[in-house]
Amino acid sequence: MDSVLVLNADLGPLHRVSLRHAVRMLFRRVAEVHESEPDIRIGVFPVPTVVRLVSYVVTRWRYSAGPAWSRPGVFARDGRRCGYCGATATTIDHILPRSRGGRNSWTNTVAACSGCNQRKGNRTPVEARMPLRLTPAAPTWASLAQR
Prior knowledge:
Blueprint: E1 4-7, E2 13-17, H1 19-27, E3 31-42, E4 45-53, H2 60-65, H3 71-77, E5 91-94, E6 109-112, H4 114-120, H5 125-128, H6 141-145
Parallel strand pairs: 1-4
Antiparallel strand pairs: 1-2, 3-4, 5-6
């Protein structure tokens, strides 16, 4: 168990925290256990897998624009799988290469293995005859919190 899902008071997902952080939240009574590991305890608390905040946290700002583009975000969105062959991804590939005006955006980047990234080079997937296995799209906060 390396992370615990934090739910808002209305049961909407917020983010993930470490087990240690979750236990501190329980101790301070900021959160309550929503789901836990059966028959395993840390002191008086069951080992949580999901905690729910006691009071509602306003997060309007998070849902208006969605998460900002980031390399770790692209890896999380694509499940660390290459968008071309499905192998373990180690790099980020721009669908429209940066040298041709491609930007760092959710719809222009995919996770890729180094072999596919090198093979594609400075071309588009159509020019390189390397079809994408997925259609890149901007993720939601909820989808990134599940990873």
